[in-house]
Amino acid sequence: MSAARQPSPTVRDEAQPAVESPEPVKKPRAPRARRTAPPRGVRPVPALGAEERARLLEGRHHDPHGVLGARTQRGGVSFRVLRPYAKAVTVVAKGLRAELLDEGDGLFSGLLPLAGVPDYRLLVTYDSDELEVHDPYRFLPALGELDLHLIGEGRHEELWTALGAEPMVHQGVAGTRFTVWAPNAQGVRVSGDFSYWDSVAYPMRSLGATGVWELFLPGVGEGALYKYDITRPDGSHTLRADPMAQHTEVPPANASVVTASSYVWQDADWMARRGEPAPHQAPFSVYELHLASWRPGLSYRQLAEQLPAYVTELGFTHVELMPVAEHPFGGSWGYQVTGFYAPTSRMGTPDDFRFLVDALHRAGIGVIADWVPAHFPRDDWALAEFDGRPLYEHHDPQRAAHPDWGTLEFDYGRREVRNFLVANAVYWCQEFHVDGLRVDAVASMLYLDYSRKDGEWTPNEHGGRENLDAVAMLQEMNATVYRRCPGVVTIAEESTAWPGVTQPTDGGGLGFGLKWNMGWMHDTLRYASKDPVHRKYHHHDMTFGMVYAFSENYVLPISHDEVVHGKASLVSKMPGDWWQQRAIHRAYLGFMWAHPGKQLLFMGQEFAQGSEWSESYGPDWWLLDSSYAAAGDHRGVRSLVGDLNRTYRAAPALWERDSVPEGFAWVEADAAEDNVFAFLRFAQDGSQLLCVSNFSPVVRHGYRIGVPEEVPLWREVLNTDLEPYGGSGVHHTQPLRPEPVPAQGRPASLRLTLPPLSTVWFRPMPPR
Fold this sequence. Notes:
With 768 residues, the chain is of the alpha+beta class. The protein contains 14 helices and 33 strands. The strands form 8 sheets. It has an 8-stranded parallel barrel, surrounded by 4 helices. The longest helix is centred in the last third of the chain and has 19 residues. It is elongated, with a radius of gyration of 33 Å.
C-alpha cells in the first residue's frame, strides 16, 4: 500500500490522561522475538542493524536518543521504544492512538503518517497492568553547555548542581535528570526501584568529550532509589552508587536516593555575622563528637533537641562533628567515605541534618565538619575503578594504594577529580551552612613517600617527595572556600613541620585558617602521664611548644585519636590514685585553655570518663547519674570545663593575640624541680591574665611569681583545685597586691599559695 493511500491512525474521542508516574518495568518474563501484523495505520520502520541493536540492548550505546524516541522522516514520524517485558506499547496523543509493532527483545516501533512529532505519551501494557507515561527519549539534554564547559575545565564550583540526580521540570514535565561522569564507559544505564532494578530500559546518552552521561526520566521524583549500570571498556558490567548522590539508603544498603531540599533556614543572623572577628582572633573552643554515638539511637532532629543545650551549658563556641558524609562501615567512624555529598542516612535525611546545624546556630554554636579528601575505600559499588579503569584514584597502583588503611588515594592531578573535591568542600559550607572544615590526614596527602619505603614511591618532577598535585588541590580548595563562603574556617590535621600550612596561598602557603598542633599534644601528654617525681626530667615537654607557637595558627587538640586503641582516656593517662588522676586532668585542662592556641576536647573527656571511647556505645553517661556513688567526681570536672570556657570567653587576653608573640610572655619556664609553670597572656588593649600551674602533689606556700609592677591588684578568677570541682579547696579568697620583691626578672611579685596538682588564673582588678 502506498503512503498516499495509507489509512489514518485510529482516533479516540477522549481526553489525554493527566496521570503521571514513574513507570516500573515489570518483573521479567521471556521477551518475545516476533513481528506482528501492523495495526491499521502503522507501518514498519527499518530494523536496527544487528550491531546497533546489540549495543543498545547490552548497554554499550553512546547515543540511545539517536535510535529511540520519535523523529520525522520521509513518510511521517517514526517511533521506537525500549520497554522490556511489555506486551504492547501504544502511542497516544490528542486525536491519536496507535499501537506500535513488536520487534522483540522489548523493542517496539512504527511509522505513523504525521506531519510532525506530536506531544505524545506511551501507553505501556504488561501482563497485569497498563501505564501511561512520557517517553524519556523525546527530551533534549537537561544539562547546559556552560555546565559541560566548566566540568570539562575542572572549574565547576557548584558541581552538585550539574552532576547527580536532580528533580526538576524539564520541557514542562516533572521528573529527574540523571548525570554521571564516566569517561571510560562504553555505555551507562540508570537502574532503580522505578524499573524493578532492570537496567535495560534506560540507557543514557554521552554528552561528548567531557565524559558525562545524561538522561531525564519523567515521573521519577524524590525518594526513588537508583544506581548506574556501567559497561566497562572490556564489556563487563558494574552497578555503582552515584558519586554525587546527596542522599543514600541506610547502610549496609547502598543505593543512591533522589532528593531535593525544602528546608527553610532560620539562621540568617548567625550567617550575617559569621567569622567576625576572624577565628584566630576570637574565642574558639571546640567540643568534638561522633554524632552516631554521642547519645546512641538519636536522630538528627532528636540531637537538635539535646546537643545545643548541652554544648551551651559547657560554654564551647563550636562543635566539631566527626565525618558525617556517608560511609559503609561504622567502625571507620566516618573516615572511609563512599558518599562525599551525602550526610549519613543513619540518623535521617539531608534536611534533618540541616535542621541540626540550624539549631546549633540559633544557640550561638558554630559547626565544624570533618572532611576526608585523602582517600576512599575500595568497595566495588562505589568509587574504586568506577567506570572500569582508575578514575578517582591515581592510575599508578603504587601511588593509588594507601599503605596504612587499605584504601585508595585520589588522583589530585586530574582536573575532574580536583573539581570533585574542591566543589565538595564548598558544598558542605554552602548547602549545609557548616562554619568550618577540619581536613583529615593532610600529611598523608602532602608526601609521596608517606608510610612508603624506598622503591615504593616515585619522586616528583623536581626530584622531591612533595606531592605537588595534592598541594595544588589544597591551595585551590582553601582559596575557593574562603572566596565563596565568607566566615568559614578550614583546619588542617597536619602532623609534620610542613611550612606555611596557615599562610595565604598567594604567598605559597596552603591557605588553611588553623592547624592542629599535634606536637604540643604529644609533648604535654607525655609530661602529664609521668609520675610527679619524674616530671622534672621532662619539663621541656611543657615549654617546647612555645618555641614554634607562632609559626602557624594552632588548635590544641585532645581528640578522639588520643582516647582509643589502647591509649586510654585523658584521665586514665594520669598517674596516681583517683583523686590525683582527676586533679592532674583538671590542671592539664587549665594549662591548655590558657596556652596560646585554640582548644579542642573530645566528648567524654569533659567529665573525666575513665574508659576509652567506643563508637558502639559512646560516652559513659551513667557516670553522671546521681545513683552512682562517684557521680560528684565526674560532675565536678564537667563544672570546671564549663567555667573554663566561660572565663576564657570573658578574657580577651586568652584569644585576641593567639597567633602573635606579643600575646604571650613566660614568667616561670625553668622551675623543673618544682613542676611549676607561669606565663602572662595579653589582649590587644594590653589587659593581662596570669596563669600558674603546679604539677606537683604538694601545696607550695609563699611561692613568688613575678608580675608587672603597674598592676595594683590581682584576683583569682579560676582555680582547678576548688572543692566544687573535686579539689582540696586551696585558693585565694582576697585580691593579691604585688610586693616590690623581684622575681623571675620582674621588679614586683605575688606571694602565692599554689594548690596541689592545679592551675590557677589571675586577672588584674579593674580600677575603682
